[in-house]
Design a protein that fits this description.
286 residues, alpha/beta, Rossmann fold, 10 helices, 8 strands, 22% strand, globular
Length: 286
């Protein structure tokens, strides 16, 4: 595992000791929920056979493998992540798939010199966690060739994402929910399009575009109502509030009951379907 040091030390610790193992355990249902959004960003990237792609925050490697399929045997993909538990799953998946054109690096993309030059920088919900995003994107820009592209998907604000807002409001009935710095590393750090446009422009990217996308998501991958409640108690704002409060079993059960009631109206034949809102961000390197 990379050293827990540097400007992203807190994130390195979090994604190795807390979030990473959870994501590995919940990989299938998380991927089922967010896969369509990641595919949209790939479509917007205009990926061509034979290209070299850098997948930032590649996690358990699903996006890296799909990028590898899209660039074909003449291309290559490097997936970078700070989470060793997630990369261990990614490497096993690549080996099982016989994906010879993908590789993975356990590295901090903000500070590590990466093995470019790449034709495309891609990320599915992996670029919102940098302590110093301008420095991070400047470093990533250095790994891209002239004429390269950028494409990533990130969440818009929590207020625009009912699948996260409803659990947060439910937990707030029982727990203190302090208002975080909206620009602090986290899932909503890139919700402000003007801020992100400025970050990317300062880091050397041109023609930055934000495409708003609103979709109904299969929360917990279309599982049952109770499975979805369990998922939302393990991931997202309700989970974070319970963890920070070191909530005991009785409090967890009260939140669980209220959360089940709150999301029950969204349950149907395809599971719990709730609104999600993202930006598809694209840019170029002149």
């Amino acid at each position: 595992m990379i050293e827990v040091a540097g400007p992203n030390a807190d994130q390195i610790h979090y994604w190795n000791e807390v979030a990473g193992p959870k994501w590995v355990a919940l990989h299938d249902i998380i991927s089922a929920q967010i896969r369509p959004l990641g595919a949209l960003a790939m479509d917007r990237a205009g990926i061509a056979a034979g290209e070299r792609v850098l997948d930032v925050g590649c996690g358990s490697g699903e996006t890296t493998l799909e990028l590898g399929r899209r660039v074909g045997p003449g291309g290559s993909v490097v997936g970078v992540d700070i989470s060793l538990p997630m990369l261990e799953r990614a490497r096993a998946a690549a080996q099982a798939a016989g994906a010879a054109n993908v590789a993975f690096e356990n590295a901090d993309a903000q500070t590590t010199a990466l093995p470019g030059p790449f034709d495309l920088l891609y990320s599915r919900f992996g670029v919102m966690f940098f302590a110093e995003p301008e420095a991070a994107f400047a470093n990533l820009r250095g790994a891209l060739r002239s004429g390269a592209r950028l494409a990533f998907v990130c969440w818009r604000s929590i207020q625009e994402n009912p699948w996260l807002l409803v659990p947060a409001m439910t937990a707030a009935r029982h727990l203190p929910m302090p208002q975080p710095d909206p620009h602090a590393p986290g899932p909503f750090a890139f919700a402000d399009a003007a801020r992100v446009r400025d970050i990317l422009s300062r880091a050397g990217f041109a023609r930055v575009q934000h495409e708003p996308v609103d979709r109904e998501l299969s929360v917990a991958g279309g599982g049952s109502l109770d499975e979805t409640v369990d998922f939302l108690l393990q991931m997202g704002p309700a989970s974070a509030a319970l963890r920070q409060a070191q909530a005991g079993p009785e409090l967890v059960e009260r939140v669980r009951a209220d959360l089940r009631e709150a999301i029950a109206p969204f349950d149907g034949p395809e599971g719990v379907r709730m609104g999600g809102a993202v930006w598809i961000v694209t840019a170029a390197v002149d």
